[in-house]
Every structure is written in C-alpha cells, then in structure tokens.
Amino acid sequence: MNLKKLIVPALSVSLLIPTAGNVQAAEKPTVNTPASQLRADLDYLLSEHFVLAVTAMTKSYDGAKDAEAANKALDQNALDMTPAIASVYGEEGAAEFERIFREHNNYTDDLVNAAKEKDENARADAEKEVAEFVEEFSTFLSTATEGKLPKEAATEAVKVHEAQVLEVFDNYVEGDYKEANETFREGYKHMYVISDALSGAITTQMPEKFENTKSDTPAADLRSALNSLAAEHFALAATGMQKGFDQKKDYDFVSWAEDAHTSDFKAAIASIYGEEGAAQFEKVWQGNHINAQSEIVAATLEGDEAKAKEAKAKLDQFAMDFGAFLGAATAENLPAADAEKAIKAHEDLVRQTFDQYVAGDYDASYASFREGYKYMFGVGQALGGAIVTQMPDKFAGSEMPSDMPKTGFGGASESTSASAIALTGLGSLLAMSALFLFRRKSTNQ
Amino acid sequence: MKKIIFLSISSLLCFVLAAYNYGIFPSQASSLQEKSKGERIESNLENATQTPDTTKSPLAKEFTLLKSEVKKLTEAQAKESAEMRGIVPVRIEIPAINVKAPIEQVGILENGQMGVPEDTNSVGWFEPGAKPGGRGSSVLAGHVDSKTGPAIFFDLKKLKQGDEIIITDKNGAALTFVVNKQKSYQRNSAPINEIFQTTSGQNLNLITCSGVFDRTEGTHEERLVVFAELKKENLEKPVTPPEAPENVEVNGSFVTWHAVRKDNIVGYRIYRSEQKDGKFEQVGSISAHERKNFTDENAESYYYYVTSIDTLGKESKPSSIAKVK
C-alpha cells in the first residue's frame, strides 16, 4: 500500500544527497532533536485519533455503556492537537485546524447511525461529508506547509486513513472481526506515515524553528518505530482486556492482533539485537505479561481473588525481567532499574484503565487510557535514545547538508569531484541501506 | 363474531367432557393444577443448572464456567429438555385418512369442559396437558361434523393399528406417533384420568364425537378416542463430538489457536510431545472465556495439538500438530 509509496521517495532523496566529507565534525546521532520531537508529538496525537475513532464508532454501534466516554475522549484528542498546531502555525491557523478536524469527528456519528438503521442514503451522505473533509483538510495542510506537503500527497494520506477507519468499522458491523483487526493494525500504522510526511513538511518549511534538525533521521525513525510498537501494545492490551471482560465476540481477534503485534515487535528487536535477543524478548514479553494481563481478566470474571493476585505478581515479575532485558540489551544505556520503574508504571496504567472500566467509571477509564497511551511515547524517546547512544554507527548519517559541497573551483578536474562524491556517497549508502533494512522490517511487516 | 359464537356453541356441545360430571376439572382445581405444573417446570430448570456437567464433575474442576456461561448453558439445556418433554404442536398430518390441518391451542372452559377449535377444519390441542412427545398423553380433539357436513376428524374411526400421525412444531421439528388402538366411550363415562394422564409414556390421543347425535342434549352420545404412541426412533439422536480447534501455532512461549465458536464449548486441552509421532500428553486446560493461549516456557522443544471440549465432556479430534517455526 501507500506505506511504501511514501517511504521510498523519502529514502531515494536521502540517498541522492551524499554526506559531507567532514565526518569528524558531525555530532553524534540522537533521538532528541526538535524535529524528532515534532514527529513524536504528531505520532502520538494522530495515532491516538485513529485508535479512539475506531473505539468510539464500534462502541457507539454496540450501544455500549462507555460509548459516550469514548466519544468524549476522541473529541479531547482533537482539542489537544490545537496547541501543537498553534505552536507552529499560530492561533489563527490552529483555530482553522480545530474547526475542520473536530467537525470531521462528527461524521463518525452519522456513519454509526447509518449502520444502525441500515440507511443507505444516510451512509452515502456521510461518505460525501467525509470526502469533503478530505478535500478541505488536505487543502489546509498543503496551504499551511506552503506546498511542502503537496496537496496530492496530503489528499492521498487522509483519504487512505478515512477509508481504513470505515473498513474497520464495516468489518466490525458485519462480524468479520479478523478482517476488522487486520485493518485496524494497518490503519494504525498508516498514522505514523502521515506524521512522518507532515513533520517532514513542517521542518523543511521552517528549518530554523527546528534548529535545522530533520524529522527523518535514522534515529528519529527508530524513535517513531518504537513509539508505534509501544503505543499499539497499550491500545491492544486495554481493548483486549475490556473485550475479554465483556466476553465480546471479537475478544479472540483482539488477542490475535496482540500476537501479530508481538511478532512485529520481535522483528524490530531482531533487526537491532539479532534473532537470539529477539527470541528472548518474545518469551519475556508473553509469559508474565500478555498472559498475565489475560489472567487478570479471567480472574475478575471468575471472582477469583487469589488468581488475580497471582497474575498481578506476574506483572511485577515482568517489569523486573523486561527491565533487566532492556538494561542488558542496551548495555545499561537504559539502566535496568529505570526501565523496570517505567514498565511498572505502564502496567499500573493498564490495570487502572481496566479496573475503572470494570467499576463502570468510564470517564475515568478513558482518562487513564489516554494517560497510558501517551505514556508509551516516552518509550521511543528513552529506549530509542539508549539504542542510538549504544550504536551510534548504526544510526549515523543523521547530519546532512542542505546543499551539495563546493568540491571544485572549475579548474578542469572531473576526477576530484567524482571521487569525493563516490566516497561520501558510499558512506551514505552504507548507512542508509542499514536504515532501510531496519525500516522495512519494523514498518512493513 | 356471531358466526364464531354460533359455531363454538354448536361444536361445544360435541365435546362435553365428562369431567364436568365427575368433577375432575372444576375451574378452581384447574388453576391449582396449572400452578403445580408451573412449579414442576421450575424444579426441572433447577435440576438443569445442577447437572453434573456444570458443577461437580471432573469437567467442572478442569474448566471454570462463568455465571453468564452457566446461564446460557442452563437455557440451552432447558430448551433441550423441553424438547425431550415434547413440542408445541402447530400442525397435524394423518396420511391414512388424508388429514392435514393446523392445530390451535385450547384450554378448559369455565364449565370445566375441554375447549374446542373454533374452526371445524382445525384441530385443538389441550394445552394445559402433556405436549406431544412429552411425558403422558397429549390430547388433540377435532370435530366429526359441522352443521352442514363432515369436518376434519370425520374419518378418524377408519384409523387402525400402525397408521402414523405426524405432529410438527413451528420450527418444523416433527414427531411421528403410531396408532395403537381406538375405542368409543359413552360421553359420560369416558376414562378422563386415563385419556389425559401426564405421568407415563409418550402418547397422543385423538378425540372426536361418534354415535348418534342426541338432539335433546345437543351432542353426540359417544366419544371416539384413538390412542397412539411416539415412534421410538425419533428419540435416537447421535451425539457428535465438537469440532477441533484450528490455526494452532507456537510462537515463543505461546501456543495459540482459534476458538471453536459454539456455545456448548467449555474449554480446550493442550497436549504436547517431544516427537511429532510420539506419545502426546495433556499439559494444560484453558476455559472457554480465557485468552486462547497456553504458556509454556520450553515451547520450542515440543510438538503441540489442542482439542475442544463440550458441555457433555465430549472431546474433539486433535487439531493439526504445531511446532515453533
């Protein structure tokens, strides 16, 4: 799909520009740049929009008790985008963004109602509204970025997103939960393609505002890839536990998505630490973690407090084991103790979201969901930062000039410039192919 | 309406139940009887929740059933046992005398008589009594004639031993009864207790009028009763084991599979072996409401298959065998 479409041009542009000769002057690669931060912020807000849109629509369709809270959370997500946009495009631009974006969340209502009443006319009307939104929003994006995000690319990206949300919903309504969850995973990943393209456009448009840093460095890519994996885990864990507690028909399919996600995460770890490390990761991740979360659900359903206590102890064990794994893997660039603390905080948020859901306190549960979801975007920064510090060579090539070097004075020599380009080009090629392999693994699976 | 009243008065006379004279079905007693019948049904339901399969058996120790699951099972079992207790008839067919007719429900009239169908071409089922197929004798009554000519059960007297009577419910479930004998009774001396009994057998009794029409009483002098029994092969239902789980996979420490989407599945058993064609041993049980995975730290060393188990404890065939890829 378009995933490739959007990544490949970005890569080929990078490959065409050779790195500068003065390698020793290049700073060490880092995930902590203003451009990388912008991309992470957009990763967070856009992917959360997708997750909450799907949740709100399916819960509304079911007439679930938490449907209202889910819709409120979706709107709150839109409101949270406004300050982010304002910081780049000012209050006026942000207000316009908010108007267009919040309104489009209303179409989800229309689509849900059309499905409930099996009203084809209402459905056609809603689809028309969505198409108008795609047009209006992509015009806004390309105008705001002064064409750095071309209107055509924006239209395509937004259109794909809307189609994916609809496809997840339609499959859910039809009871094709496998397809619904497959599309959910695709649609979720697509949001990171949008944030990549958008952050790239904004940082190119305003290089000084972002201290001339780039949002598509290998380090920024790693941070974004880890953000995606971590936050998807949280979303699937929270959703799966609710589905299990409600004994919904799609519970097993969310479990299936969770297992598919585990395998993606494993592949990403393998691309950095090799197959053996990845196999180790998988076992730690599954046993006292995914399985323990599901045991909490079963124990809650069975009213078995001893079993619940045991499962909670397993989660603590997981925090220790996974913390130790990350500490060892990153050669303590991410200290095991810090990792353990962070994982424990994550597990607490998962449990809090679930407990509040069980108690019927849905507003609180969605507040916890949003907090827990946002929390995962620290993973990309902390873990990604540790990995990049540990393996600077693997993530080098982040410093690129905006212009070609002036490698000659026009005297005559073709060979000088050719060899300079060949040398610098080779370095760039090596770095980029490493990145390309990693990217393909982590995003394209 | 006038027509209905007229018809029912005239046909009513045909079906004077001697019960009135004998005091078997006075209206007070009948409501009492209905009540006790209701209690009996309830107690049957309670029994259903306590069937060994759901609480005390080894199966119940192995798999945990949620209250909602128990409720669902209870309802399913109640339905099943209701079917064993009989069907609610909506249609009768008697090929031997070319009868095909809808069935109405009739009760007990205020005067204690069994009610009769409004239409002389339909048949009335005595609804407070046994259901066809249920325990006891289910009673159907039909008119022998109307004011103008023969009615639905005009040829009932021609039925002989071995003739079949097919009763169908609204879902199309059909039970076949076989005629045993027929007998005529003086209208005041019919053995009501025997004809309407609800304690033994799975019988079907058809009633119509016979004998001379007594104009002073406004009814025929006799009642013809055809006695039939449930044809036995109806009861033999083959019990098939559940389907085996599919998509069994081993990844890391997880053995996963896709659920068997039937309400009567209580859980899954996981078996493993060191060799593909070796002896497989059960290593775990997962209840239906749990996540469909089994965690085994040493999963890479084994081959696995999974089976599904239903409420009767029936186990499916093994799934296909899976190993870490």
Give me some keywords for this one.
heterodimer, A: about 450 residues, mainly alpha, about 0% strand, disordered N terminus, B: about 325 residues, alpha+beta, Sortase, Chain: A, Immunoglobulin-like, 2 domains, eight-stranded mixed barrel, three-stranded antiparallel sheet
What would your notes on this structure say?
With 445 residues, chain A is mainly α. Chain A has helices at 2-16, 34-62, 67-116, 120-144, 151-174, 177-205, 218-246, 251-302, 305-329, 336-358, 362-375, 377-390, 414-443. Chain A has 2 domains: 32-215, no CATH class; 217-396 and 430-445, no CATH class. In chain A, 81% of the residues lie in helices and 0% in strands. Chain B is an alpha+beta fold and 325 residues long. Chain B folds into 2 domains: 2-49 and 86-235, Sortase (Sortase, Chain: A), CATH 2.40.260; 246-310, Immunoglobulin-like, CATH 2.60.40. Chain B contains 6 helices and 14 strands. Chain B has helices spanning 2-14, 19-22, 27-49, 58-62, 67-85, 192-195; strands at 89-94, 99-106, 123-126, 136-142, 164-169, 174-186, 202-214, 219-230, 246-251, 254-258, 265-273, 281-287, 293-295, 303-310. In chain B, the strands form 3 sheets. An 8-stranded mixed beta barrel of chain B has the order 1-2-3-4-7-8-6-5. In chain B, a hairpin with a 4-residue loop joins strand 7 (202-214) and strand 8 (219-230). In chain B, helix 3 crosses helix 5 (67-85). Chains A and B meet through helix 8 of A and strand 10 of B.
